[in-house]
């Protein structure tokens, strides 16, 4: 690696002239030369704040983030009035992976210059790195308002919205069969004078269904403040703002007397994942039942289950398994592949068994701390090459009202993705034999295992 050139230092060169040489190098983009000169001037004038500031600036351009941070801190300690001090110190922290320190510095920068879009953008990035996505969205949106052509902020906002609002929200709202089933259950369950509690506001759709069905008032909680605010706007647009209250907090922090006037008569929830349990529906409903509902409260859904079938699919096999390519045997790579996947779309398949219920969970009286294990001998109904267990969910929403997102039933949109649980290798099966399916859940996660 080439060493940076030594500065033209001599006993007859005064510090001020040397500093001017550094500025010229800096203005011409000769960062290494400028850094060498400023280091020498800093040795000669250790109390000169401007020297340390310029040294920090050129080190920043050289990617020397720790050294730049030291220089900026020294400059600010000598003169705390530097404009951009918090931005530059925050940027150094951000590049060094100091997320908390970066956020604190950028927050001070925004407080000092609230109309600077760059400060807003960088604060949003630091908050994103801390997992504070909703706050990051607000500051990124503000940056775009201040600078409408800020393309980096457009990109950041798109990524934040994707992280905050997964793609399944929209197809779930457009799922005609799901909506009809929930509305039928809510209409049957709501009674005059009811207070309804919903967990998981989303768009506010189910809360408005309950209000339309005749509930005296609906309280719906949403942990994400951005989604909560959007739901409030939707509810107001539809004329239900006086009968539906959005509580922008997780259900576990909702309290009777503060958020609810009294315990609720009906609980509605749709915090159900594609494997039924991963959104932690069991502890959420159990907590609501213990603290937020009347003893005789009704609950929607009443029960849920996981269903599956043995599937043959050339497309799935080619997607999730490898045998050979170009004359080379590659099947050892299969042991690195995941044994369970979610399908963004239904790939063509042929059933090798009838659908079967793998497990059933009582959602009206859940026991979230309990795990469960089951075994099934599944009859094979057709000869074929089994690529895995194709899985979906079933719900009993109310007496006589059921719903499932079966891959055997075509649908335009669904927020729940079918799962595929894969054996170690595809199985060649014959009609009349049986295969063993083991199922397990720990209250939060579901696992299916297929063996011959």
Automatic annotation (TrEMBL):
Keywords: TPR repeat. It comes from Nitrospirillum viridazoti CBAmc. This is Uncharacterized protein. TPR repeats lie at residues 49-82, 83-116. The keyword Transmembrane does not apply. InterPro entries: Arg_MeTrfase (IPR025799), SAM-dependent_MTases_sf (IPR029063), TPR-like_helical_dom_sf (IPR011990), TPR_rpt (IPR019734). It holds the Pfam family PrmA. It comes from the Bacteria. GO terms for molecular function: histone methyltransferase activity; protein-arginine N-methyltransferase activity.
């Amino acid at each position: 690696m080439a060493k940076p050139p030594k500065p033209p230092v001599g006993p007859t060169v005064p510090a001020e002239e040397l500093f001017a040489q550094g500025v010229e190098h800096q203005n011409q983009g000769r960062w290494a030369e400028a850094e060498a000169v400023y280091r020498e001037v800093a040795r000669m004038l250790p109390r000169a704040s401007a020297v340390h500031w310029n040294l920090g600036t050129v080190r920043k351009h050289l990617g020397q983030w720790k050294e730049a941070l030291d220089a900026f801190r020294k400059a600010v300690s000598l003169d705390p009035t530097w404009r951009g001090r918090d931005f530059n110190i925050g940027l150094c922290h951000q590049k060094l992976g100091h997320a908390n320190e970066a956020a604190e510095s950028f927050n001070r920068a925004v407080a000092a210059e609230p109309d600077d879009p760059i400060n807003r953008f960088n604060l949003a990035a630091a908050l994103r790195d801390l997992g504070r996505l909703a706050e990051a969205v607000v500051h990124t949106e503000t940056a775009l308002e201040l600078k409408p052509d800020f393309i980096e902020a457009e990109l950041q906002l798109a990524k934040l919205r994707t992280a905050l609002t997964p793609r399944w929200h929209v197809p779930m709202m457009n799922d005609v069969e799901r909506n009809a089933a929930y509305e039928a259950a809510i209409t049957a369950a709501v009674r005059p004078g009811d207070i309804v509690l919903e967990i998981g506001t989303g768009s506010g759709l189910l809360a408005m269904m309950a209000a339309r069905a005749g509930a005296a008032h609906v309280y719906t909680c949403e942990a994400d403040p951005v989604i909560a605010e959007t739901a409030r706007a939707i509810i107001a647009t539809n004329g239900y703002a006086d009968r539906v209250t959005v509580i922008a907090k997780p259900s576990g922090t909702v309290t009777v007397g503060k958020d609810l006037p009294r315990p609720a008569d009906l609980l509605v929830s749709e915090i159900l994942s594609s494997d039924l349990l991963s959104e932690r529906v069991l502890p959420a409903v159990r907590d609501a039942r213990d603290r937020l509902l009347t003893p005789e409260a009704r609950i929607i859904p009443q029960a849920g289950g996981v269903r599956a079938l043995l599937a043959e699919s050339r497309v799935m096999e080619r997607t999730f398994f490898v045998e050979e390519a170009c004359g080379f045997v590659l099947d050892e790579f299969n042991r690195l592949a995941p044994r369970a996947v979610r399908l963004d779309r239904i790939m063509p398949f042929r059933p090798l068994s009838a659908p079967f219920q793998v497990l059933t969970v009582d959602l009206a009286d859940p026991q979230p701390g309990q795990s469960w294990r089951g075994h099934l001998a599944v009859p094979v109904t057709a000869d074929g090459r089994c690529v895995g267990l194709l899985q979906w969910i079933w719900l009993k929403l109310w007496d006589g009202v059921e719903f499932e997102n079966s891959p055997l039933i075509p649908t335009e949109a669904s927020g729940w993705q079918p799962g595929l649980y894969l054996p170690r290798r595809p199985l060649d099966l014959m009609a009349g034999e049986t295969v063993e399916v083991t199922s397990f859940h720990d209250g939060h996660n579901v696992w299916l295992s297929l063996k011959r």
